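Students often ask why we bother encoding 3D structure as a string. The short answer is that it lets us treat folding as translation between two languages. Here is a chain of 259 residues written in the first language.
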Amino acid sequence: MAASAVRPDSMDSKSMSVHEVAKLTGITARTLHYYDEIGILKPTAVTKAGYRMYDEPALRRLQSILLFRELEFPLKEIKAILDSPNFDASEAISQQIKLLELKVQHLGRLITFARNVQKKGVTTMNFEVFGKSEMDKYKEEIKAKWGDTKAYQEYAQKDVARNGDRYSQIADELMAMFSQFGKLKHAAPAAEEVQTKIAALQTFITDHYYECTNQILRGLGELYVSDERFKCNIDKAGGDGTAAFVNQAILAYCNKKQA
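And here it is in the second language, the structure alphabet:
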């Protein structure tokens, strides 16, 4: 059944009206109407009497929306993430948990700082404590992976080529690169031979997936060690510790480019 299709007033008892959803979640009916208007959360159906109704999948989507909103994602970006053809709800909740943990850590630092100000006086200053660089970096990783970004659009366009016989060949070539990194683990991450291969990795990703800017490359490096699937595949190709080594090499590469 398509979203917003007209249904009889005798909706499934598991479906909820706008009023019921508002009461359950604490958000206003006006907000639900707005979500419908912008297409981020369409009602499952509309009764003959004009009442919007929401079933369990719609409520699960709303839950994801509210979690992303709690993490200060703009609605436009949330819609792009949830509508991505590659969106994985189970992976997304893991990412949301990670961001929530980072938020708790950030708030903890703020509380400690505020107590210190209270104890020592308002002349105490430390503006670094307000920074959210780690959270912002992780958000960019999520948006680059799921969102309607330029990188994702390029990925989608090049996916046509990857869906053919060439796909497995490209994947094998990428794993071969990680295998080469595994043979270089004895060297320093900033060593010239290692950095040359990082540059080659960046070019390979741009040529076959999307434009791999230094910012995106840095985010991928973090993903290689934080995402268990990436870590396992890379370590399988190059041996234990390869994912961590590549991440360190990417950091050295990006820091040098930034300097």
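Translate back mentally: Residues 89-120 form the longest helix (32 residues). Keep this in mind for the problem set.
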